[in-house]
């Protein structure tokens, strides 16, 4: 892998450790998940926990490894070759874990984060609502406080782990606070009375994660389960903005693994399959797909690495948000293109279930949609760019003055009146 030159010795060892874990995963589990025979693979989570591969970035006090984002990106790529479902389930421990690690009380970290990172409990995130989509602040799930208990009413859809997860991070509006952004609060909801799975989605791909619609009917959530405790009431907007970093970074990292897995299958095939007396990798149409795929994967890895370094820095939040959005957009679009290249390289056999390319194609289609569509990423990228670009003086050469008639200011008309 070309990124080896940028990896630390510790990251190279981590890569080997994750590769061993990925080899452990039975092919039958992947097949059973794709056939919806398995709805939530707890054995996968338990094994990852036993190998100390969950929550790599978090403090060792809670069972993490205190590694940087660059290390987690190494791990995410390796797990990504297993497909979107297992990659997503693995990522949820980074995503929900981030919320607890950054905003949780010591008691919440002891009660939730520690067993999470051991693989003893499964986690999910209730973010999207039927009428909300990309508009997070259109949430209608309500939390009514009575003493030290909140009662949740509403629903969340597209919840990976709706079937199977023990704890769900749920965003809801606390009644009695007028401004919805100030009322938004994050709750750690334990599965129990009032938490119901009303529909499990039939998905094109990314199956086996128990993705469903959760309905909350007077679900009792004690104050101690408000993320951050009493101080966390109304803090959901801050939590949400923080969470968009691991949401999108994990998507970017896993996407490269998914694409690489498909590409490697196709590349080996081109060195075996003959046509017209030649290996098909010798044909220009095929080797162009190979070179395009390699270049895209390397470019995506490099952008991911830069975004990872930025996420660990003390840079302004807007700059981090922009780079993370770029990484998510570019990596997921790269994955879609590379998997399509892989199928084209293999021809008709790639469209069958003799090879896993067709499953990978179904899996990878989702990732340009989830954790914020790539169209939303475009909005974030340009918004953060202009906010930064227009706020400061030009530091380098002003190339506008390098035109022959740059001094003809009367020709530089900017208004339409």
Please write the string of helix (H) and strand (E) elements: HHHHHHEEEEHEEEHEEHHHH
Gap between N and C termini = 56 Å
Assigned CATH class of the largest domain: Mainly Alpha
Radius of gyration using CA atoms only: 23 Å
Name the poorly predicted regions: none
Classify the secondary structure makeup into a structural class. Answer: alpha+beta
Number of helices: 12
> How confident is the prediction overall: mean pLDDT?
94
User: How large a portion of the residues is in β-strands, by DSSP E?
Assistant: 5-15%
- Count of domains: 3
DSSP helix fraction: 40-55%
Textual characterization of the structure:
It is built from 12 helices and 9 strands. It is of the alpha+beta class and 417 residues long. Helix 8 (236-270) runs parallel beside helix 10. The chain starts with 8 loop residues before the first helix and ends in a 28-residue tail after the last helix.
